[in-house]
Amino acid sequence: MKSIVIIGGGAAGMSAASRVRKLLPDSSIKVFEESSYVSYAPCGVPYYVEDTVKDINELVTYTPEFFIKERNIDVHTRTHVTSVDLGASEVSYVSEEGQESVKFDYLIMATGAVPFVPVKKWLENDNVYTVRHLEDGEKIKANLSKAKNVAVVGGGYIGVEMAEALSKQGKKVTVLEMKRIMPGLDPEMSSIISNYMKSRGVVVKEGFEVKSIENSSGSVLISNGSESERFDAALLALGVRPNVELAKYMGLRLGETGAIWVDDFLKTSNEMVFAAGDNIEVKDVVLGKKRYVPLAPEANKEGYVAGSNLAGMSMVFPGSAGAAITKFYDMEIGSVGINEEEAKASGIDYYAVKIKHNSRASYFPPRESIDLKVIFDKKKRVPLGAQLVGGQIFGRLSVMSLAVSQGIDAEKLFFAGIPYAPPFAPVWDSVIVASRIINEHVL
Q1: What pTM does this model have?
Q2: Is 319 domain-assigned?
């Protein structure tokens, strides 16, 4: 009987555990998770803070008790793994019961990511918060109930979502972003979002690089070196970094992005150790190099692949194009692949198509539009990336994600069987129009 230990009970960890259980029904599986929850959805925290989700437990897909009783997976929550001895195949951990250890035949590292905090001292302020676990959402919702003026430091996906959540709670929200709102998008697409956020009452300060965060008489004083502003609280949304401290201690190889290196089968530099989720780097399917892609869909699939291969299969994880989507009030925002800045930096001969188009038939309410930008490889005529801002973008982003990931060229996109009906799309959909433009202009 094989003994498997999985460190981390989030998306990748529990996906891997469930896959191993299905393929190796007689194996012993232990999962160690440092928070109180497993199989949870931290992406739902903003919607809990804004009160769309009333109960934090709604963000839990399956409880530890479910995995223990229904899948015979031994789940340990509120448990911190202190060390891993690869030579002795032993994991040491601390729980409410004290210090213990367990032997393993195989190990899966699913330690996830941690919020990026440039200066750790900032977190010594009781009114400064980050978002990682569901408990963080509970803390933010409870402690900020009386706050009136809140800063969100960072204007990426988490920053935009938390700005909406706090705004819906009636707070004055200021977003401080060192580059531009949604910095992964090109400037002209970012400005559409920034202007809309301002129209909804959020103060947006772009080009504001936070240099210091200090406690000042129970409030938070934030400065960029030349300008200071006082807030009741601050939420740090500066992105995440792979949680690799334990991996480094174990001597596992780290990749060029700083995340854990894995091969195509998600095996690490140690034969007995697999890794999956927000702690690994994967292949960028557009540029061919390694990329850090801390996204939930990837984490779930990586866990599935790692669990499959641990059990004896030979399943390849093909990589990622990094498709992501969010919203701010009624504005939907999404992207996949590379932007124009990345295309230039990579020396790619590209052609950029940017259009503004109806999201439905022009006569069908509500009248919404989509701003679509597609970066095409000029020679191959395949899309390398797409950015969408507006209404009803999910389906279009999904089509573009498939095209970018699979190298579907503009001619095939033009003739793709994209469905039409007035409530859903114009007869000439934005994706079809974008592909028609490059076919007509690049001969």
Answers
A1: 0.95
A2: no
